[in-house]
Amino acid sequence: MDLVSALAAGIIFALACNLDTVLVAVGQGARGDRLGAKAALVVAGVTTAVTFLSLALGAVGAALLPEAVGERLGGLALTAMGLWYLLDALRGKTNAPAADSRSWVALAAALAVNNAGVGVAAGITGMSPFLASGCNFFVTLAALVWGRRLGRKLAGWSALALPVSGALLVALGLWQLV
Question: What are the domain boundaries of the chain?
Fold first, then answer.
């Protein structure tokens, strides 16, 4: 595989892995949560580290972690986050408190688990762990920024931000489970 083809495959892989990042960032932006450089680097760094490890694991041996396990764990984590948002909305909360560093780490962990199964599968195909995880790092940062900007534009609908982002996360999580 030449460099251009490998880079294109890495970017497509990273885009596929970051749809959930955009959706989560839209919800965070609509709720008014701040995303500083440190938080964005934590999310991108954690997801990239797990993505790299899963790609390397896939390259070493597919028998260690079936593809469905990573997808299901990621789907469960995203569904749980979405249900939590919906529960908050049912309790009458319209905005969650601003995200602190622990919540960004939890978000990063959920997104990373989601990438793990896909990473193992992509690693089996021979995709370069360094190239694909590097692409993932930059695409994650872009997805966070773009999603938050979109979420802020929708902030006028803030009463709907929590239930809509919760419903989107539940739908994405269930889609990954099925």
Answer: 3-177
Nearest to 130 by CA among 119, 121, 141, 140: 119
What is the pTM assigned to this prediction?
Answer: 0.69
What pLDDT does 84 receive?
81
CB 38 within 8 A of CB 144: no
Name the residue among 59, 64, 74, 25 with its Cα closest to residue 133.
Answer: 59
Contact 8, 135 (CB under 8 A): no
CA distance 176 to 46: 20
Annotate 166-176 with b (16+ C-beta within 10 A) or e (fewer).
Answer: bbbbbebbeeb
What DSSP state is assigned to residue 94? S
